[in-house]
DNA sequence: TATGAATGAGCTTTCATTCAT
DNA sequence: GATGAATGAAAGCTCATTCAT
């Protein structure tokens, strides 16, 4: 749980009660959904009075946004972290496959540490325009450009077929997402050989978009 | 809309009011979600008294299930229709790529005609165990076996690499789903060259899993 | 059941549907009470459309009154039947104890044949002014005078102590009612030696109010 | 009313609103019955929002049970209070008639102070299994054994005829109940000479079951 | 800052009653 | 007469939010 709280915690300090509220809200909402979770339930599990929730989050939806927004930011963080971009362009990765491997491993660990948060994000994205906004902004301003840059770079390098970037993205992203959803949400209890799965997936992806094919 | 009602209508007749109720429920729920749509709203839009809804669907959730269950069945219908299986095994399709093409085209048209229904299915799947049950049953009993059969067949024929079926499915299905979601839900207003998109997608998929690579 | 319908049937003929409605209403209301029984349930059990009930009884309460009013009349019928009064005054019964015995036996059989109807009467008496009216009228106009007449007669004859009639009634009536309620409603399944019970009860009553004591 | 609230109040404190709710519920339900009294009416009379009722009693039926259960307990309280039993066996009462007199006086006062509560109990007993349960438990575990003990004691002492206890109880209890119902519910407005009535009633009862007869 | 009783609008659901067929 | 779809008022209940303490 501490990892997950790292994802959420901003620079300012939170009171212990506020942390309890967030934890409880995350547990309950990820289990039962936003509309099936009442503030009184959250308060009870957090060991806090119902009014206390509204001292910290003036609205139930505010509480949801406070949970979900940092996830959106963090999910895509490495993609636009200066460090990452630098690594790519300073050829820390010899090939697109290497980059993909590093990227997937990194995001895999993040997902593993934040399953409940990601569940909430996926489930509620459809219903809350506020969240959709945040998501779209991050995607178009950060993720998409970073992706494009990287793809252009490795195309130039001869690692990739000359497909439109959009097409490549539409292959790569759902494949990764699909794997993660299956891995963590649909069949979390299956025995997975994660490393093998990832290698295989990359093999197939590169078979589809790599230059050699 | 008439197409969509075909997806829902059973053999027996519905009263005009019942059809109106279904239509209104579909519109509203697909726009705003199940929990943000009240039965009084549905009644108002359907031009019907609120009690009339409960004469036909004894529960609000019953109404949802009546909307969503036929979609689950129809989404996967061609996969387990005798006709389809026959076609596959009587070599109506010379290659897995051909099969894929026919399949995607067919499902693309279905999706196009049923966007609101599919939106509802995707959005509510997470929260209603009844729906999850129906989905799981159809998937494990129908879709998955049909897929396996087809994959085995074309593997034997030498069309496909010798990857585990599960891995192939985990590549192919999310890729197709991802495309459709982008096409019909995330960016429905973008100008799409559907035929080209599909061809490209198949190219990449076959690059990843086809025998030639 | 045929006996019970005798209690209800007036001179005019009823259609078979109407009889079915009455039967079903009696069963359901005596089991679950008036407010827990819906007209649609009654219709279903009667094998009749809901509207048909309202063709015969313009109101749900009308139906109840149609069930309960004849019971009130019949419960007390023997008390004011000319025949009964005649018997009393022509000394068909040698003693008040004899009269009591005949009376209790008679009412016992009536109760036995009409348990559901009596249950309904007892349960709903409290809530429906219409029923209370009917009950009060019958009691003050018929039962009470007949009782007084008989008591005066047997007092004069020296069978009874010189207690106020009201006091005697307040001993006799609740004792009989209490026995019947215990016998038919509270503990209907206990094995009863009815004849012995009745004899004992009369013994005690006469011990309390009879002249010998 | 304060007396009545004593019957209901548990050791813990109630908020003033909760007291108002109870009072209003008792008034309305005893006048019109449970099913004819809506929670909104209760709220209005109590000067409280409807939601407030459900904060204190999670169900309308819970409210009813909260009203009725303490009555059941208190109605029979003296019968199984150690003090009462002691009194009986330490011959505080010289005869069964004395005991009866003390007992009736005591219960008469209780009834007088709790008419609405008792009305509710009598009226709703028929329809609510929860209440029936509570009633049966108290009767078989407390009232019945205490009665038996007392009857055996005074039989041995030669005060009572050798009738079966059950028969005695079936005479005594309905007679007392019948008197109280007539006195407080059926004809509360008649001018009563209570002391005389009670004396007379005891006379008759003892005439019926006493040893001298 | 924290509490939790109180609020009241809004929800789903029930059901006696009506009426066109 | 009989039907049963339709009605709509009213019910019990939920819950995010407020506010005096």
Annotate the secondary structure layout.
The structure is a homotetramer of 213-residue chains.
Chain A: H1 2-8, H2 16-32, H3 39-46, H4 50-56, H5 60-75, H6 77-80, H7 82-89, H8 96-113, H9 115-125, H10 129-156, H11 165-186, H12 194-209
Helix pairs in contact in A: 2-3, 2-9, 3-4, 5-9, 5-10, 8-12
The first copy, chain A, binds a DNA duplex (21 and 21 nucleotides) through residues 15, 17, 38-40, 43, 48-55, 58-60.
Describe this structure in words.
Chains A, B, C, D: This is Transcriptional regulator, TetR family. Chains A, B, C, D: GO terms for molecular function: DNA binding. The structure is a homotetramer of 213-residue chains. The model of chain A has no long low-confidence stretch (mean pLDDT 86). Chain A starts with a helix and ends with a helix. The first copy, chain A, folds into 2 domains: 2-62, Homeodomain-like (Arc Repressor Mutant, subunit A); 65-209, Tetracycline Repressor, domain 2, CATH 1.10.357. In chain A, 76% of the residues lie in helices and 0% in strands. In chain A, helix 5 (60-75) packs across helix 9 and helix 8 (96-113) crosses helix 12 (194-209). Chain A is built from 12 helices and no strands. The first copy, chain A, binds a DNA duplex (21 and 21 nucleotides) through helix 3 and helix 4.
């Amino acid at each position: 749980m501490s990892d997950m709280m790292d994802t959420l915690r901003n620079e300012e300090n939170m009171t212990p009660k506020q942390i309890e509220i967030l934890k409880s809200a995350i547990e309950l909402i990820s289990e039962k959904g936003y509309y099936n979770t009442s503030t009184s339930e959250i308060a009870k599990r957090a060991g806090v009075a119902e009014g206390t929730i509204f001292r910290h989050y003036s609205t139930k939806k505010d509480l949801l946004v406070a949970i979900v927004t940092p996830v959106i930011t963090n999910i895509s963080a490495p993609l636009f972290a200066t460090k990452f971009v630098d690594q790519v362009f300073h050829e820390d990765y010899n090939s697109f496959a290497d980059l993909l491997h590093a990227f997937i491993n990194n995001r895999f660990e993040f997902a593993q540490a934040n399953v409940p948060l990601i569940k909430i994000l996926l489930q509620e994205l459809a219903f809350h325009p506020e969240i959709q906004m945040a998501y779209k902004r991050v995607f178009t301003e950060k993720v998409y450009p970073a992706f494009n840059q990287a793809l252009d770079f490795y195309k130039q390098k001869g690692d990739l077929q000359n497909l439109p970037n959009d097409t490549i993205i539409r292959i790569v992203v759902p494949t990764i997402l699909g794997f993660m959803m299956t891995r963590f949400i649909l069949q979390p209890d299956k025995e997975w050989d994660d490393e093998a799965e990832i290698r295989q997936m990359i093999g197939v992806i590169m078979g589809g978009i790599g230059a050699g094919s």
